[in-house]
Write a structure and sequence with these properties.
Elements: E1 4-5, H1 6-15, E2 20-24, H2 28-41, E3 45-49, H3 52-55, H4 60-73, E4 80-87, H5 90-98, E5 103-106, H6 113-128, E6 133-138, H7 158-168, E7 172-175, H8 192-201, E8 206-208, H9 216-224, E9 227-232, H10 234-250, H11 262-278
Parallel strand pairs: 1-4, 2-3, 2-9, 3-4, 4-5, 5-6, 6-7, 7-8, 8-9
Helix pairs in contact: 2-4, 2-11, 5-6, 6-7, 7-8, 10-11
Bound molecules: zinc ion (ZN).
């Protein structure tokens, strides 16, 4: 099957009152694990690239990552989408489109509302003219390590959502309702009432970032109440590192050819985790 446009999966999830799961991937091993898990569960999945994973080294990584996911998607019956996660820079987001990303996140949520609207609107116009879908962010998801439950001033304000979506024509919207990126110091408590209020004022599909560490009962509620795309990364990264440690412990002292077994070992560990997570996906 050829690559599916990620936004089509998000819209299908929206119609089904469900969420499509989207995974931040750094390399072949992670994309392989996502596709393996999608095949095993029969669920669709989106492979995302976080720009930082390549920009620290070379912008060439955009084209290579897109080509890799496309080639892998063509060799599976699972429905796989491709998406660029958090890009803060117009030139970078446009370059990703050139490289084959048909869905990008352009994040101007660090700006004031007016600037966020202006920048996202311009980028969305550019993207739509090229058949590319845009996700943006309203409110500030931020890092879990900086988070406290009282930081509701950074949460998405329901009264700004309709204006933002109408003005920008954005295809999906990441919201802040107590979720955050990375490791939560304490289990988060999603503001589901706020989600209801946001869902009531817009038909734009909603996205939940910072999925690792959110208790499953809260996730089920969030998916039933308007979240249509779910970003998941930190737990998979943790599993990746643990699998490397386990493998090296078994091969101590390591012989040079032991490295041949490492990819399969880390892929299996991540696949097992993703399969379990995908059980929450109702698509
Ligand atoms: Zn994010």
């Amino acid at each position: 099957m050829s690559l599916v446009n990620a936004i089509d999966l998000v819209r299908e999830a929206c119609d089904k009152r469900a969420a499509v799961f989207s995974f931040v991937c750094i390399d072949y091993n992670e994309v392989r694990a996502v596709i393996n898990a999608a095949e095993i569960t029969g669920k669709p999945a989106i492979a995302m690239l976080l720009p930082e994973y390549v920009t620290n080294f070379s912008l060439n990584g955009f084209a290579e990552f897109a080509a890799m996911v496309k080639a892998m998607a063509e060799r599976t019956d699972a429905r796989i989408g491709l998406h660029l996660d958090h890009s803060y820079d117009e030139a970078e987001a446009k370059y990703a489109m050139e490289c084959g990303f048909t869905s990008v996140m352009f994040d101007a949520s660090r700006d004031d509302l007016e600037t966020n609207i202006r920048r996202v609107k311009a980028l969305t116009e550019y993207a739509h003219a090229r058949g590319v879908a845009v996700e943006s962010e309203l409110g500030s998801v931020g890092l879990a390590k900086d988070h406290t439950a009282e930081q509701t001033d950074l949460f998405t304000k329901p009264e700004t959502v309709d204006l933002f979506c109408r003005e920008t024509h954005v295809d999906s919207l990441a919201i802040a309702i107590g979720n955050a990126h990375g490791d939560y110091p304490l289990p988060p408590n999603l503001d589901l009432r706020r989600l209801d209020e946001i869902d009531a004022v817009t038909d734009t599909p909603l996205v939940l970032h910072g999925g690792s560490g959110i208790p499953e009962d809260q996730l089920k509620e969030a998916f039933a109440r308007g979240i249509n795309k779910f970003n998941y990364g930190t737990d998979v990264k943790r599993r990746y590192i643990a699998a490397i440690h386990d493998y090296m412990k078994k091969h101590d002292p390591p012989q040079s050819l032991d490295v041949l077994g490492l990819p399969a070992a880390v892929q299996q560990a991540m696949t097992d985790l993703i399969v379990r997570k995908l059980e929450l996906c109702k698509m």
